[in-house]
Amino acid sequence: MGDWEILYYNVPFAGRAEFIRLVFEEAGVSYTEPMKTHEEVRETIMQNGIGGFPVLHPPVLRRGNFHLGQTPVICKYLGEQFGLVPKLEEEKLQAEQVNITIHDFVAEGRLAFHGKHWVGSYHDQKEETQPYIDWFVKERLPKWLKHFEAVLKFNKGGQGFCFGAEVTYVDLALLQCLRGCESSYSKAYESADYCPLLKAFKARMEARPKLAAYYKSERYAKHPQDTNSMM
Ligand SMILES: N[C@@H](CCC(=O)N[C@@H](CS)C(=O)NCC(=O)O)C(=O)O
Hints:
Shape: globular
Bound molecules: glutathione
Number of domains: 2
Helix content: 55-70%
Distance between the termini: 30 Å
Oligomer: single chain
């Protein structure tokens, strides 16, 4: 069928593609990121259409003639391919619930940095968007984090994973949204004393052998998690 490819901007920060990279890394499956420039991404995906079933925005997963858009759908698909899914039928659906909720959180957390212009640069709207950031930190961030704390706690008191006794694609997505949250809303994240299980979970996940090796690798150095905007 060909190699796994992630089509995404060749940017020096994690971006939404990081959710997908983590699934490959934890599964120990190799992948490439062939796009070299923003223009190539725009031309390949957005302007000319990629061929076959339409996709809208990057990141896009490609394998041979198969293309798939929407990060949470891609992660779920790869989770199924690599055996990173819960075992029980109800838990598979609940996993999808959490997966989508994570991406709602990411989208909202990102939007606060772009209150004036949704797709413009944060640096061009720093002043105008600050009230949105302040409001998000006060009114919304605790709500999201407390929810994820409760999800984790529901499974055996929160000492392991979101579902069952083994890691799934949802744990990887939760890890990534916490990393995004920590880097974008660092003060608020650090002072959040209501989600100790989440913080311990994040540290535990980051220490998993394959992920720890990834975070030290050249692959990660190309896309480090050090931006605002949750991604
Ligand atoms: N819901 C989509 C969002 C995709 C998305 O917004 N992609 C960004 C990059 S991370 C983009 O290129 N957006 C272009 C645009 O909105 O015009 C997903 O989760 O994949």
